[in-house]
Amino acid sequence: MNLPKPNSSYEPALVTRAGEVIPNAWQLLVDEDTTGAEGPYVLGFERALRDLDGLNGHYGVRVNPGDDVRLLEPFLDRITLIEVAFPGYRDGRGYSTARILREDLGYIGAIRAVGDVLRDQLFIMMRCGFDEFLVKDKDPAGAIAAASQRFSTTYQGAADSARPVWALRHGIGA
Amino acid sequence: MYVYDTFDHAFTRDRIREFSDQVARRLSGELTEDQFKPLRLMNGLYLQLHAYMLRIAVPYGVLSSRQMRKLAHIARTYDRDFGHFTTRQNLQFNWIRLADAPKILEELAEVEMHSLQTSGNCIRNTTTDQFAGAARDEHADPRPWAELIRQWSSNHPEFSFLPRKFKIAITGADRDRAAIRVHDIGLHIKPQGFDVYVGGGMGRTPSLGHCIRTGLPGEHLLSYLEAALRVYNRYGRRDNSFKARIKILVAALGPEEYKRQVEEEWARMDRARVDAPQAEIDRLKTFFPDPTFNTAAFDEAAFERARTADAAFARWIRNNTHPHKRDDHVSVTISLKPTGLPPGDASSAQMDLMADVADDYAYGELRVTHEQNIVLPHVAKNDLYALYTRLDAVNLSTANAGKITDMITCPGLDYCSLANARSIPLSQEISQRFEDANLTDRIGDLQIKISGCINACGHHHVGHIGILGVDKQGIEFYQILLGGRADEKAALGQITGKGLPAEAVPAAIERVVQLYLKLRTHDNERFIDTLERVGRDAFAEALHEPA
Questions:
Q1: What ranges do the domains of chain A cover?
Q2: Which residues in chain A are closer than 8 Å to B277, comparing Cβ atoms?
Q3: Using an 8 Å Cβ cutoff, are A47 and A29 in contact?
Q4: Bridge partners, residue B82, by sequence
Q5: CA distances from B115 to B104, B121, B411 (A)
Q6: Shortest CA distance to B226 belongs to which of B144, B167, B158?
Q7: What does the alpha-carbon distance between residue B19 and residue B11 come to, in Å, rounded to a whole number?
Q8: Of A1, A128, A172, the CB nearest to B277
Q9: Backbone CA torsion sign across B411, B414, B419, B425
Q10: Which residues in B497-508 are b (16+ Cβ under 10 Å) and which e?
Q11: Cβ distance B255 to B199 under 8 Å?
Q12: What is the rounded average pLDDT of the residues B173-187?
């Protein structure tokens, strides 16, 4: 039997919440790699905490599920990209990470979901404040379009601009 | 009851469309079973031993007669003509075809129902007191708050992939009939606000919830829950699914430290983004008014004549009615525990009949109880005999609510892929042994709860007598626990004596009960009271055959 390929067997492609497929200019520095001229670089979490104080320019930081993103607060003005890792899609810690960045720390740079990112998670990722997705799907732009249109109603306030139903019901924030 | 507006309808429609698309992708092979699993679970679809099981949400156990008829229709059309009411106040269909699932969800949406978040590692159906809005000892109606939580937790973007499932229970009465101390979060509405209990649960590591806050204002309930869930989502264990419930986190941190983290999160939070405004809480409250009560004078003489003439009716009145806030009404429990049949099951004909009597005598409203029975919350006393007669005609007049044969029983090895031992046949044998109505009544209130494995779906930890099925080298064995209770004096039962083979259990239970009848000081000293007075050890010996 010729079955279509499972979602996760597609090569990841980088796509924005607007549905634009974009090239990835960033490289992840493994621990002791030195920064060269060809940046921009994404630093591991520990390294970011250690080095960002003495670095100039703008960096990205990789946040793994167990990392406390609030520790990045002093450095946020030097960070333009935060990659939130989903080693497995069942690990939901990254959703809290993104909301804390947006709603608590007021971070306005890019938040990118990387790892096990499938089309069925895109809607809630957008709601939590993600704006770039390294998604595994045969049609990345189509996956974004489908996720954007999936729900006309949201019951709760989150990091996006969607108004919760109670705000719509009572004309709040119109 | 709550009525969907255009937003609620739109949400349910969108969700069904999403799931239909996921089912189609699974059937085409684009989604692997591994990828499909969390998606189907979020929509209440389990793969069981023999077939797919679809678990339908009955939000906080409240059903209209119209919804009950729809469930009957689904049982007839897509299942084997019956459904199973669960301890989550939900309904399960055990013989569903995957391809039919989207169609069933559409049928449910017609009557404002769904199967969302009835499984998976998300916030599940909030449960409450089956007598909410009717009980004499209630000071606040929990239903509007349960609806507020239902909406807030629906497709919650941050809490859809929690470490493990998450269950919230809420009560507004003095007597706790919602078992709030054995839930991930238990809420008790008090005049000065909400008491919040966290970290209760059963399963392999049973524990009672800790009170981490009192007097929480209702208008901040959602933001406080959000803070509590966020701490859990970030720090709950994910390396071992048996240690992933919030109770493990609360025990590891200590309740004080967990509370500190929640309060800190709550203090930082922009609550206005999370908390629904007072106007929305007020709106939700308007959906739960009293029915227009039938105020015809109670004809006590006629009632007494019926009671004297029909001893079975008298017994049913004694055991299956609960005090109502109005003197001329009662709440009625329809027992789904007749002798010899699986607990919690109802045929489509029985569901239809329950819908009909709800329309004729109970203002069209029904409740599913966590004891796996059905309640008619408001029944005029004048209608009781007519109601009883109609229930009796379809084997729904079993007069055992709260009695020894009103057992909570998980599906067990007959249905469940996790179970180690059978539960339903054992409960049937026990109920046969106590079939004698006089004996049952003499024993009085006694709760037996049976689980076919350590996951404790049958709540054995909080049974006055709990029975746990274990697998001992391929043989089904049962451990007996004594002294559990889920009410306002919540306690966990303790394993007593040695494990017993299935055939020895009913006799052991009988010996324990006979000893209780001998030890009690008067007829109104309940089993649990006697046990508390004399201690478990007094009963340990009775569990085993005299040498």
A1: 9-169
A2: 166, 170, 172
A3: yes
A4: B347
A5: 10, 14, 19
A6: B158
A7: 12
A8: A172
A9: positive
A10: bebbebeebbeb
A11: yes
A12: 96
Question: In this structure, are residues B132 and B378 in contact, taking their beta carbons and an 8 Å threshold?
Answer: no
- Please report, for chain B, how many H helices and E strands are present, in that order: 19, 20
CB of A40 within 8 A of CB of A25?
A: yes
Asked if the peptide bond before residue A40 counts as cis, ω within 30 degrees of 0, the response is yes
State the best of B17, B43, B158 to mutate against chain A, taking most chain A CBs within 10 Å.
B158
B156: which 2 tokens?
């919650």
Which residues are registered as beta bridge partners of B476? Answer: B471
Q: Quote ipTM for the complex.
A: 0.95
The pLDDT assigned to A35 comes to 66
The DSSP H or E segment spanning A31 is none
Query: Is residue B168 a contact partner of residue B184, using CB atoms and an 8 Å limit?
Result: yes
Cβ-defined contact of B38 to A90 (cutoff 8 Å): yes
- The pTM of this model reads 0.95
Note the pLDDT tens digit of each residue in B210-260. Answer: 999 999 999 999 999 999 999 999 999 999 999 999 999 999 999 999 999
Query: What distance, in Å, lies between the first and last C-alpha atoms of chain A?
Result: 53
Structure-token pair, residue B92: 């399960």
Q: Kind of pairing, strands B321-323 and B52-56?
A: unpaired
Match 């990470």 to its residue by tokens. A97
Average pLDDT rounded to a whole number, residues B176-200: 97
B505, B500, B508: which is closest to B472 by C-alpha?
B500
> Does domain A9-169 correspond to CATH entry 3.30.70?
no
Amino acid present at A67 = D
Nearest CA-CA partner of B171 in B159, B183, B162: B183
Q: Among candidates A111, A88, A114, A89, which has minimal Cα distance to A100?
A: A111
Domains, chain B, in order of start with CATH, read 6-110 (3.90.480.20), 142-285 (3.30.413.10), 300-392 (3.90.480.20), 408-543 (3.30.413.10)
Question: What is the model's pLDDT at position B474?
Answer: 84
Instruction: From chain B, pick out residues whose CB is under 8 angstroms from the CB of A68.
Output: 234
Is the separation of the CB atoms in B295 and B159 below 8 Å? no
Of A89, A91, A103, the CB nearest to B270: A103
DSSP states of B333-381: EE----TTS-TTEEEHHHHHHHHHHHHHHSTTEEEE-TTS-EEEEEEEG
- Residue B280 has its nearest CB partner, among A65, A146, A170, at A170
Rounded CA separation A70/A73 (Å)? 5
Amino acid making up residue B387: L
To probe the interface with B, which of A95, A116, A118 has the most B CB atoms within 10 Å? A95
DSSP A103: I
The residue-averaged pLDDT of B362-366 equals 98
Element (H, E) at B33: helix B33-42
Residue B195 has pLDDT above 80, yes or no: yes
Q: Quick check: B234 and A96 CB within 8 A?
A: yes
CB nearest to A92's CB, from B160, B222, B277:
B160
CA dist B15 and B7 (Å) reads: 12
Entry field: residues in chain A: 174
Distance of alpha carbon B392 from alpha carbon B320, whole angstroms: 13
Measured distance CA(B458)–CA(B450) in Å, rounded:
5
Q: Do A151 and B234 touch (CB under 8 A)?
A: no
Contact A104 B15 (CB under 8 A): no
